[in-house]
Amino acid sequence: MWQFFADYPWFTLFIVIAAGSLFGMIRFGPVKLGAAGVLFVGLLLGALDPDIGPAVPAGLSVLGLALYVYTVGLDAGPAFFRELRPQLAVMAGAVVALVVTAFAVGLLGSAVLGIDGPYLAGGYAGIGTTTPGLAAAQAASSDPAQPATGYAIGYPLAVVLTILFVAGIAAVRNWPGRRDPGEGLPRELVTRTVDVTRPLRWADVPGAADGRLIASDYRPRDGGPRVALGLDTLSPGDQVVLVGGPDALAAGVAALGAEAPTHLLDRRDVVDYRRILLTNPDLAARTVAELGLGDRYGAKATRVRRGDQDLLAHDDLLLQLDDRVRVVMPRERTAEVTRHLGDTEARVSEVSAVSMGLGLAAGFLIGIPKLTIGSTVLSLGTAAGPLVMAMVLGRLRRTGPLVWVLPTRSNLTLRQIGLLLFLACVGLTSGFAFRREAFSVFGLKLLGVLVVGAVVSYALMVLVARLLGQSRPRTMGLLAGYVGNPAITAYANSRVSDSRVNTGYATLFALAILVKIVCIQLIVGL
Fold first, then answer.
1. For a tag on the chain, would you pick the N or C end, based on fewer CB atoms within 10 A?
2. Residue 99 has what pLDDT?
3. How far apart are CA 121 and CA 295, in angstroms?
4. Coil, helix or strand for 245?
């Protein structure tokens, strides 16, 4: 009856992707499975007949995984290297927690309950929700279905338990963050026109010197409006437009005078402003200062829209293709500024085949060397090789004419395609073994091991963050990055409005994947 799915594997693959994506949209309490729904639908369909899994096109899962980890690395690399020095202690603590968890899972599962290493490795990847880790476990195992079974058991467990941990952290009000004060970057940007009532140097305005506040437009008391370039001393009777977070803007208004009844930017006959799409490849990976808008056009960038986030355009902000840059400029220079930045929608989806091909080739190359320790073989492989290389290239951003980073929309599209292909292939090829093993006494024993491992792991990470003086919002983000699931980040953001949730996630996400891959290969050796 089910032979049709084995005879037409391409149809089967994409019907799993479609049905699994629909399943992933269903909300279970505060979260949705998202792309992981494809894995579970694949397991269900693959469990129907033993001929379905072997019919899946060979090598397709490797391609999907490579696209996924490479695009993740390009995106996560800059944040990882930026946070390396200030968050080194937190990173070291996370590494220790992951290693201790791997030891606990391996000792309890193998030595006490006699569970084979590949099952435990897949379960360890599951409670860490790391798709590259599952691939590493399968590559190191003689039977790829065994890690997939463990992963499928551990993944939903991880989501549920992490949500409970985050909810518990959010409920704790007395959580001093002695080494993590402040509110982080503003979650929103506000623009206000200020009537200056007292003389003050611009550099002395709170938030101006450290880039938390930007002046975009300026009208001296005896002149017309102009772009706020080279501000020195503001005098009573002047008007200035301030851009920043709500707190920084309130402090700036209080220092200068009072909010004006009319907005200076409502008058656009002399100074104009608009959002311009950055598509000029020569400007990719440049800072705002390197755009040269002031010297060339008498213009000024004030904010950058990247995905769903608004960023203040301070001079050191690194730009990437597909950013929408809000520019204040003399009206007659609008066309020139637009041409300089690009503003071509068609180029947003363009991907450099040269840079992407070279990057992936280099990633596969560094994944080849192997290190043998007893019965365990360690290597970066097809999971970590492209990830590590992409992190380095994402940090470099460009090398001469080669731009390594991808436009945001292209990156997210390739990432989604790669993840869906990989999860569909894994589900279909492992479904029949999952049916045989998961719903048995053996499956219950494995579930018990993973419950213990998950609770120990998450508790250790929270303890590390607390001992190192991290704030409550950053701890929630660190736990989400430690587990590596964006659904957890979304839930944490719903409980607290603080950008440190996202920066905490970015700090540990890529590092945790790499450490998990190494630990997983060691567990398989059991």
1. N
2. 93
3. 57
4. coil
CB atoms near residue 441 (< 10 Å): 7
Secondary structure class of 166 (helix, strand, coil): helix
Cβ atoms of residues 348 and 334 within 8 Å: no
Q: What are the CA-CA distances from residue 38 to residues 13, 24, 102, 143 (Å)?
A: 10, 7, 27, 21
- Find the DSSP H helices in 131-220: 131-140, 145-171
Using CA atoms, how far residue 193 sits from 251, 266, 312, 321, 342, in Å, is 13, 10, 17, 31, 30
Query: What is the 3-state secondary structure of 312-336?
Result: ECCCCCECCCCCEEEEEEEHHHHHH
Indicate the helix (H) or strand (E) that contains 233. Answer: strand 233-234
* Average pLDDT in the chain: 85
Extract the tokens encoding 514.
């790499």
45-63 pLDDT tens trace: 988 888 888 888 878 888 8
Paired tokens of 211: 């880039």
Q: List the one residue out of 407, 383, 426 whose CA is nearest residue 69.
A: 383
Distance (Å) of CA 62 to CA 29, 41, 208: 33, 20, 49
- Quick one: DSSP state of residue 262? S
In this prediction, residues 256-273 reach a mean pLDDT of 86
AA identity, residue 238: D
CB-CB contact of 304 with 323 (8 Å): yes
Crossing angle of helices 36-46 and 408-437, rounded to 10°: 30
Residue 28: how many other CB atoms lie within 10 Å? 11
A 10 A CB-CB count for 328 gives 28
In the DSSP assignment, the letter for residue 57 is P
Q: Could you read off the pLDDT of 170-206 as tens digits, one per residue?
A: 888 777 777 765 555 666 788 899 999 988 888 888 8
pLDDT mean over 122-147: 85
